[in-house]
Amino acid sequence: MIAEILQPVNETLQNRIQNHASPKSLYYQTRFLKEDEPIGTNFSLAILGIPEDRASDELMGCSEAPDRIRHSLYRLIKPRFDIQLIDLGNIRRGASVTDTYVAVRTVLNELLKAKIPLLILGGSDDLITAHFQAYKGVSTNLHLVTVDSKINMQMDNSQGKPGYIPQIIQTESPALFSITQAGYQGYFVEPETYDAFERMNFDLIRLGALRGALISDLEPYCRNADMLSFSMNAIRAADAPGQFQASPNGFSGEEACQIARYAGISNDLSSFGIYNLLPALDREGVTSELAAQMAWYFIEGYCNRKQEYPVKESLDYTIYRTTSRFGDEELVFYKSNLSNRWWMEVPYPKERTSQEGKFMVPCSYKDYQQALNDEIPDRWMKTYQKLL
Q1: How far apart are CA 372 and CA 374, in angstroms?
Q2: Sequence ranges of the chain with CATH classification 3.40.800.10
Q3: pTM metric for this prediction
Q4: Which tops the pLDDT comparison, 332 or 330?
């Protein structure tokens, strides 16, 4: 039973939060799981901490982050819509970090199979691998979005802590359909990494391509995701000082919150994790406050989910058809009349003639504009290649 692996939020922390919490705060929208208490079903969203940091000396102290974030989160005013939260507490640390990985996979897998949407408070980013592996038996073709300033493709720790991306790629189950790495900074990424992502038809999105008004370009990727992990290293040092090797460049706090909201409103996304917060380096608790606000925006986005998926017979969508002078393939786009969000059809390749229908991909108005200009959208082409 996973109850044996969970450690409830301690009462001292709960009392400290309650002493500063408004009656309209999230604290009063949350049930805190007690020792050996059944989880039940009377809630919308679950919160779970993973206080683990032993895989890397440089990230020691990340284990304190879950409770630091809680202290800030539960004092925030609840979103406009009522939502019932449950805080499952923390996963108990194992005798070794490997034991913790097993516990993470076990607990998350059971919760995901029960279709419990999760807000995960890490912990160091090596936990992202176990987070991903927990989808075994849950998702057959998993879409992963990871937000980070760096990409370490090393499988060993000869050059620092091992990278979670190559470990995820080499995981046999769950089957990985796509990775979108968002917010990377070019001076931290080796050329071979670009080549590897290009070969696998995965998406690398540079920080500069997502700043300011361009941040909305990330929404279709989040809408398509099953899981999103966010490393606090993706945020600039001025807004999030509590991180190892903080960079002067990165997302602003506002942009980080916007990404968290995109994760929240995604119908398909079942888990959102925040990692790599180092409280020991956090000046005046600014980074913990920001992580709490990101968590709040994820919750607020979840409250605003719209159960929409384009079908030809629905009157809730406007269908646009384009043809290209470079081929006979007709590109079909759907625009929601409810949310103004876009999707496009990608046909299954002829090599998979046994597969019926079309593959529907979230996209943006820019993709439709490209099609009008006789350009095949990059998102369309990469999806088609993955379907081969």
Answers
A1: 5
A2: 2-303
A3: 0.94
A4: 332
